[in-house]
Write a structure and sequence with these properties.
alpha/beta; 8-stranded mixed beta sheet
Length: about 375
């Protein structure tokens, strides 16, 4: 039996073990720290009740930020984090690399969530975390944004900003809840992942059960949740020489704020959509153009992929990540998007904003939303 089968297969089977929903309050002093966005805007945290089948009492953690009224452009950027991260990935302690702060400076309001099954949102038993439940929980927040019951202001222009699977879940979302979003900025997402990366990530060392982790293992007992092992954030998510200071090693941020959990059940369900079959060992599979849920996307869309994204670029596969190559491969999957643009920041890995050139990449994304959605 392969190491991959041992890792995913074992946690998939034992994922019904009870989980302490308070277990992710590690480093609670750090996680509760307010963000000093100062003149850029004002932020509040909410625990938003959402209706999710089989998950009674579910809540979504929401960081809501608004710029000064005179600077507001009237559009909300709705941020959905990547796997094994939480909302701190968009809003790290070093504010130079904060997508939240960048959006506020451009006049956007921001909703920055922890996905169901991650961060400070509800952690159901891991075997109950599915794509449908994740997007249902997100819809519960969006509905309250649109009717004004969350913030006291009804928002009628909302753009999904997602990273990796946090981007991919927009595909399923727009199929189930069309019209909720007015555009999409999808970071670190491609229909053809590298099998060499999947073999590395799922080989049993880089991503491990929380029960084997020295931090999460102290507070969580549901071994069907996975976390990136300490010290592996770099090769999993970064163009390491260009990683922003403190993001991958030698810092409390990496071990306490920028690591988080994902349900093995959710991961197994998700990876085929980007061209990987995890069992019995990772192998590449073609993603059918006609049936990919990305065809649900019917609003202006920007794809942002780092030049050296370890999941999709280079490697023994030799996949080229430049704008012409990505557009040629991805355009057929977004045939219903009225606008499809591609931006490839140089010397950048998977998490776009958390690289040294992250500020310029964030500026590009803000300008794209202004040009293609706000000012249309």
């Amino acid at each position: 039996m392969t190491r991959t089968t041992l890792l995913l297969g074992a946690v998939y089977l034992i994922g019904t073990t009870a989980c302490d929903p308070e277990g992710l309050a590690i480093g609670s002093d750090d996680q509760a720290a307010s963000k000093a966005h100062g003149a850029n805007g004002h932020c509040e945290d909410f625990d938003v009740p959402v209706d999710v089948d089989a998950v009674p009492g579910a809540q979504m953690f929401v960081e809501y930020c608004a710029p000064p009224e005179a600077q507001s452009n009237g559009t909300v950027i709705f941020m959905v984090h990547t796997t094994n991260h939480n909302h701190h990935g968009w809003d790290p302690p070093n504010q130079r690399y904060s997508q939240v702060a960048s959006a506020l400076r451009s006049g956007f309001s921001v909703v920055n969530v922890d996905r169901l099954g991650a961060g400070q949102s509800t952690l159901p038993p891991s075997n109950l975390v599915t794509i449908d439940r994740v997007i249902t929980a997100i819809h519960g927040v969006v509905a309250k944004l649109r009717d004004g019951s969350l913030t006291g202001t009804a928002h009628d222009s909302i753009v999904w900003l997602g990273s990796s699977f946090g981007a991919m879940y927009s595909w399923q979302y727009d199929g189930k809840y069309p019209g909720d979003f007015d555009g999409f900025v999808l970071n670190g997402l491609h229909h053809r992942a590298k099998v060499s990366f999947a073999q590395f990530a799922l080989g049993g060392q880089a991503i491990i059960s929380v029960c084997a982790d020295p931090v999460f293992g102290q507070t969580m007992s549901d071994c069907g949740y996975l976390v990136d092992a300490i010290g592996f954030k770099g090769p999993l998510y970064y163009d390491e020489p260009n990683a922003a200071p403190g993001m991958i090693s030698g810092s409390n941020w990496e071990t306490r704020l920028l690591r988080d959990v994902v349900s093995a059940n959710l991961l197994v369900e998700s990876v085929p959509y980007i061209g990987i079959m995890p069992f019995p060992q990772p192998q590449a599979i073609p993603v059918d153009v006609a049936t990919s849920p990305s065809q649900n996307i019917s609003k202006p869309t920007l794809l942002v992929i780092g030049e050296n994204d370890p999941i999709f670029c280079g490697g023994p596969e030799g996949y080229v990540c430049d704008e012409p190559a990505i557009l040629a491969h991805e355009a057929p999957y977004y045939s219903n998007a009225p606008v499809l643009d591609v931006f490839v920041p140089q010397d950048t890995g998977h998490v776009i904003n958390l690289h040294r050139n992250g500020p310029s990449s964030m500026d590009f994304q803000n300008e794209w939303v202004l040009d293609n959605i706000v000012n249309q």
